[in-house]
Design goal:
mainly alpha; Preprotein translocase SecY subunit; 3-stranded antiparallel sheet; two-stranded antiparallel sheet; 5 strands; 5% strand; transmembrane helix; cell membrane
């Protein structure tokens, strides 16, 4: 019952307990906001539209569950995630931004501020795109009587909702009880699980019993796999040379540098979902175009992404690529090699400096290959099983499961680090 002792220990620490209650309070505020609908929307018709569109269901995941109600936070944190992707790409290709990132906390604060500013126009554009998309569904009459003034007010309201969630996410992150943006997505997924189970039970018949059992088994394997990959690490031995200062001797310690198999965590999955939704979403706007060529291209694009084989292949490649990309962003071998050299540390058999950086880079590339392959396979496995079992309500559950497991692991680790820090401080 070690976990029970941990919970009791956390609850006894007043500041940590208050931080957890504070975060839970913010998540409750988020869920309340997710149930405040934008006026003039037929929620029944909207629910029907979401049930027939799997891609919008995945977008609803990124919105934290606010899109299905067309609430004031319907866009969720998706614009902020898109802005983050854009700036992380720019950091790799623009030397000035790369230098700014290397300046430490001050430079990262500037990039973070620019990311927030970029999120505002992206949120406005996405709000307009979503409104136009729903307005085009004339057979369902989701949005009616939308004049220019109401359109403007709705866009401003939805953009403000995104900024509000960004603020809540940053408040949560400051408490060091998990990543705020990830926890918002996590909360939106968890509150939808009862509805997904209800839909699955509602359509259940005896012929699907074996399929559902197979899917549950695959889900359990997915959970185990994500935990194994997230916890897996390569320990690189590091030795510190002995140094004599005055009458005392320092150093002479053998330790290790942990290199995780999946340093990127849940970010590759979120990035992949954001990118894969873009082409079919844009194509929706051209279904009613006057040009026959545009309509044909839009229909072919939507049909292509509805093909499970193509969808799974693109999803796998994006998760694989973003795992490497984000690892490159967060792991800096040159900086680690420089810090080791300054502290008289070295890897046995490897010369300090550039040779150490090259060794760390090669090692990280090899172990990331295993992590990226495994994470990509786990990502597409639920899609493949849904095609095999025919249980459509569980399709989104696979992607959700990946995010939930990763967020839980990250949050637990942060809580454990807080407990360890307080043990060192004697609290």
């Amino acid at each position: 019952m070690n976990w029970l002792k941990k919970i009791i220990q956390i609850w006894k620490l007043k500041d940590l307990r208050n931080s957890i209650l504070y975060v839970m309070g913010l998540l409750v505020v988020f869920r309340l906001a997710a149930h405040i609908p934008v006026p003039g929307v037929d929620t029944t018709a909207l629910e029907q539209f979401f049930n027939t569109n799997q891609l919008l269901g995945v977008m609803n995941i990124l919105s934290g569950g606010g899109m299905e109600n067309f609430s004031i936070v319907a866009l969720g944190v998706a614009p902020y995630i898109t802005a983050s992707i854009i700036f992380q790409l720019l950091v790799m290709i623009i030397p000035r931004l790369e230098e700014l990132q290397k300046e430490g906390e001050a430079g990262q604060r500037k990039i973070q501020q620019w990311t927030r500013l970029l999120s505002v126009p992206l949120a406005a554009l996405q709000a307009y795109a979503l409104i136009v998309l729903l307005s085009q569904q004339s057979n369902l009459q989701i949005i009616s009587n939308l004049d220019s003034w109401r359109l403007f007010i709705t866009i401003v309201t939805m953009t403000g909702g995104t900024i509000f969630l960004m603020w809540i996410g940053e408040l949560i992150t400051e408490r060091h009880i998990g990543n705020g943006i990830s926890l918002l997505i996590f909360t939106g997924i968890v509150v939808q699980l009862p509805q997904a189970l209800q839909q699955t039970i509602f359509i259940f018949d005896r012929t699907q019993l074996i399929n559902i059992i197979i899917f549950i088994a695959i889900a359990l394997i997915t959970i185990v796999g994500v935990v194994v990959v997230t916890e897996g690490q390569r320990n690189v031995p590091v030795s510190y040379a002995k140094r004599v200062r005055g009458m005392k001797m320092y150093g002479g310690v053998n330790t290790h540098l942990p290199l995780r198999v999946n340093m990127a965590g849940v970010i590759p999955i979120i990035f992949a979902i954001s990118i894969i939704l873009f082409p079919p979403t844009v194509a929706q706007f051209f279904l009613n175009a006057k040009s026959t060529v545009l309509v044909t291209i839009a229909q072919n694009t939507i049909g292509l992404f509805q093909n499970q084989i193509f969808y799974g292949a693109i999803y796998f490649l994006l998760v694989f690529g973003f795992t490497y990309f984000y690892t490159e962003v967060v792991f800096h071998p040159d900086q680690i090699a420089e810090n080791l050299q300054k502290q008289s540390g070295f890897i046995p058999g490897i010369r300090p400096g550039s040779h150490t950086a090259d060794y760390l880079r090669r090692t990280t590339t090899r172990i990331t290959l295993a992590g990226a392959l495994f994470l990509g396979l786990i990502a597409v496995l639920p899609v493949a099983m849904t095609s095999f079992t025919g249980v459509a309500t569980l399709a989104i559950g696979g992607t959700s499961l990946l995010i939930v497991v990763q967020v839980v692991i990250e949050t637990v680790k942060q809580l454990e680090s807080q407990l360890t820090m307080r043990d060192y401080e004697g609290l």
